[in-house]
Amino acid sequence: MSQTTLPPVEKTQPVSAPGGSISDRSRAERKLGWMLAGPAFVVMLLVTAYPIVQAVYYSLFNYRLTDPENRSFEGLGNYWVILTDGVWWQSILVTVIITVVTVSVELVAGFALALVMAKALSSIRPVVRAAILIPYAVITVVSAFAWQFAFRIDTGFVNSWFAWLPGVSDTTDWFGGQASSLFVICLAEIWKTTPFISLLLLAGLAQVPEVLQEAAKVDGATWWQRMWRVTIPNMKAAIMVALLFRTLDAFRVFDSIFIMTAGANNTESVSFLAYRQTISRVEIGLGSAVSVLLFLAVVLIAFTFIKGFRVDLAQARGER
Amino acid sequence: MASTLAACGGGGSDSGTPTLTWYINPDSGGQATIAERCSEDSDGAYRIEVAQLPRDSPAQREQLIRRLAANDESIDLMSLDVVFPPEFAQAGFLAPVPEDVAQEVTEGVFQGAVDSATWNDELIAVPFWANTQLLWYRKSVAEAAGLDMSQPVTWDQLIEAAESQDKLLSAQGRRSESLMVWFNALLESAGGQYIEESGESPESIQFGLTTPEAKRASEVMAAVANSSAVGPGFTTASEDTSASEFESDDAGFMVNWPFVYAQAQSKVEAGTLDQSVPDDYGWALYPAVDEGTPSAPPLGGIDIAVSAFSRNVDLAYEAVTCIVQDENQAEYMVTNGNPASSIAVYDDPEVQEAYPMADTIRESLELAASRPLTAYYSEVLGCFLREFHPPGSVNDQTGERTETLTQAVLTGEQLL
Questions:
Q1: Span B65-88, mean pLDDT?
Q2: B134-296+376-410: CATH class
């Protein structure tokens, strides 16, 4: 918001208007802004802040849903139990692997698709865009089932279609081991969310001024040089935002694992761990503590991106 | 679906009829039919509406437990998988069964089914149907292997027979409830018990996993999983996987619930399976661990429980006694394929006709052993699966590790 209002303020300064009137005006503007955004802000507080605070509160108790009478205050005991348990670190490892693999592959593939969408002939552009976006429109659980059916040893076609690949045969049990299970899970995630990244990157591509490209061409830059020195630096903000959103998403991966392996063979993610403690075991205290830790991890990622890489969300929206 | 039923069932009665809501596990419509019939028979005393729960039983439990923890009054009757009533009872979610009802609904019912619905010496739920696994075999394969199926067989014999004929021995190695079903049957057959003493508090539960019997059961489990007689996807094989393996040309032996027979028949009717396949199906009692040990087949099924938060507990119990009547159980068995918990039903001519193996099922249910009864079943199962899956890695240390883990998890010292 502040960036959009900056230019007019700068313009008015040379007129040497008294400072007080500006601050009055900006105060009125600010007040109006609060009145307009206020209701939404209150709703946000109710639906997000309240559950978060409640989870933090519950995480300090030993509290089982089926045994409310024996609820007892544990302090940080739940956190100690979690952080000293190998299961937690195993799920962190799995989550990080899935996040790093899917996000990096998606970034490259998404960029390629964005280029295709941007450069496609205008006559076929709508078709190309629709085709690329279809996976993103599929519900995650449905896509997880589809990939599971494809790779399963009894109903799947992958084993017979790809039997020519080394290591694949009729008897390959994809969901029988950790590495192969994670491979299929990552593949499903990549297939499903690459369109999201490519959509964000397409918006970024459109922001790169054509004049810069032309100037580079005149200077004799090759396609590759233009890509590296003109296009990519100019869409850095869009890339960072795409990475941020996808990393946050990928870190909370749940549906695909739930459907495909149900956490078997050490394929459990942090969200899955939280789900099992809270929903299956009805250990509200322990589960809340896992959720709070997951929340902190997500905050840390967001903070690192925004501060560490100086991602400016407003810039990505083309406001500056 | 519920509204259609309400319209049918309540057709003849006035609008003041109290409505009971029965949360059912998905089936082929049998429970809805029974609900309709009992509503009519009640002469306007009550009307039963059914509401469907999710497909798999852990998800059914999750939904019910969350609702009941919030004192949801909209639940009157619940179809509960036999492993869950103790947890619900311990939490105070179940209305006590009146003395006269308890007497009526346990008469002529398989002891195993009654035991699994009993907690702290009191009946807490009403046995509705009782499932059990049989040993299914291809007559041609057993004959070629020279295995006499009229006598009790052991797992070792099955492995040997299947390997010698290059055929499959199908069991459920998936990381799910079915692995517990299998292990518990092995353990009970060896003479052990998963839980030797179940106490009120988690600390007081005594496990029986370090006994020689448990070691023998683990040994058999690993021997099956590591034999060349199991399919390539054994660690992810479910009941459905086994059923389709058993319909294939590689089929030899299989342990599974009776639905496999009805499934093969319906495939024949649909034209996707040759009649010669189910004709080759043979059945016998669940295999024993060793020669001379008894067969201890798994016990499954559904109990009907009444919620403590129901506004019509008395009417609900009236409805339950109607639902579990022999005629209803018999029809449910014939139309939906779920074996009755009442012994007399197996003499019903229609049941005998639909199930050539009805007598074997009855015999199996008489021997059947229930899974560990505990208010912490989900935890017990979760710890078991963490150590015992994949079944091929099970050794004589696995039981001890599972015991330690379960104790730590139940006392809140470890995550699950």
A1: 94
A2: alpha beta
